[in-house]
Amino acid sequence: MNRKKLTSESQNSAKQPGADRRSFIKKTGAVAAAAFATAVAGVSKTTADKVDSSKEQMDRLSNQLGILEDADAIRKMHQAYEFHLDEGDYEEVVALFAQDGEAYFNGGIFQGKEKGVRRLYLDNFSQGLTGKKMEPAPEFKLNLEQQREQIEVAPDRKSAKARFHFSMQVGTPIISDSQLIQMARLQGEGIVKWWEGGICEVSYVKERDIWKIRRLEYRVTGQAQYTPGRSYSKPIVVPAFSNTYPENPTGPDKLA
User: CB–CB of 126/171 below 8 Å?
Assistant: First the structure.
C-alpha cells in the first residue's frame, strides 16, 4: 500500500517539470504571437500611410503639371486673340469669349458674347480697323514690370487670371456725308487713327475643358497721334463713351 502510494507520488513529481515547461512555452508563444501581430499591424499601417502619401504626392505633381499646361494654353489663346485682331478677324475674336463674357473698353462695358462683345468688335472695332499691332509711340514705352506677362491659374483649374501688355492702332470713322469720305472708307481710309498702349487684364473660365475669356479690360497708359517710323508723337486724350446702347448703336451696355 505504501509502495503504491510512493510510486504514484514519484510519477507525479517526475511529470511536473515537463508540464511547467510546456506551460511556459505556451505562454511565451502566445506573447510572441501577439507581439508579431502588433508588429504586422504596425508595418501594414506604415505601408498604407506610405501609399497614401505617395498618392497625394502624385496627385499634387499631376495637378501642378496640369496648371502649367493650362498656363501655356492661356498664353497661346492670347496670342491667337492678338493675331485675329491684327488680321481683322473679329468673328474669330468673339468666338474666344464665354457666353456670359464681357469686355471693358474706353470707359464702357460690353456685356454678353452675342450682344455687347459682338457689338464692340464687329460694329466698333471693325469700323476703325482697331486692334492692329503697332510699335509703342516714342516716350510711351512700358517699363519692364508693365511688359512682364502674368498668368495665374486657380488650384481647381477652372478659372484663371492673366495680364498682358498691348500696343495697337485704334481708330474711329470720320463722321461725314461727304462722298470723298465715303469713298475713302471703301479703301480703308476716312478714319481717324491713333496709337494706344497699356495693360490688358483678362479673366478666364473653363467651358467643357476649353478656356474662354470671361472678362477682358484694356487699361490704357498712353494715347498719341503717331505714325510708325517717326521719332516723335503727340499725346492726345480720347473722349470716353458718354452714352450707351441703343442710344449709341455701337456703344456699351453700361458706362464704367
Answer: no
